[in-house]
# Entry
Amino acid sequence: MRKMLLLLLLVSSALGYSQVDSIKPFEIHPVFDGYSKEYIDSISVEPGYEDVFDMLEGYELYNDLYSAACSWYCAAMFDDPEATSALAPQGRNTYEAANIHDFNHETVWAEGVEGDGIGESIVYRFPGHHARITKVKILNGYVKNQALWEANGRVKSLKVYYNGELYAVLELEDSRTLQCFDVGILGTHVKGAPDWDLRFEIAEVYPGTKYSDTVISELYFDGIDGH
# Structure
């Protein structure tokens, strides 16, 4: 009888997981090389660089992170994300949770446990009236340069929990790119509604060639109600 109950529990668990949406990226954009945040900031107030900005505007990454144009984030106000772990600082480099949402493609969050970080997660919390989310955008791995991207682990699949309930699994390509996911409509955008949260948990990884750390450079959003 105990074996039968255990089998039923395992089957029901497997069926429940299979009913969760598995989402692949609907858009993939390249990471630009040779244009650091420091460089972009340094020329943003200088005349004579119009051709550089004309080129950069062809990159979704620039438009999302560095352009002065208004976006969903014009109405976004929420605290920095929190992580279950983070790699200890090394010299001037930090790997804290805030780096995953600092609009700088050169900084990263790296989980800080032994092994490849499966089960480690990062949480974003939102007030109930906050603008709703429809897209998740991820720079997977240490995208600052090709060597760092190859040396460190990247996420292969990422579980998404909405208010503590498993909502979807994001299936990431193993490429040094910006990957965009359509996640439906998340949030309430109702005055007085309770706060809500999104948790992203590492489920599978692509191993790095040198380090076991699993890294995400940026995880940010787009949506409705904020434009």
Observations:
- Confidence is low (pLDDT under 50) at residues 1-17.
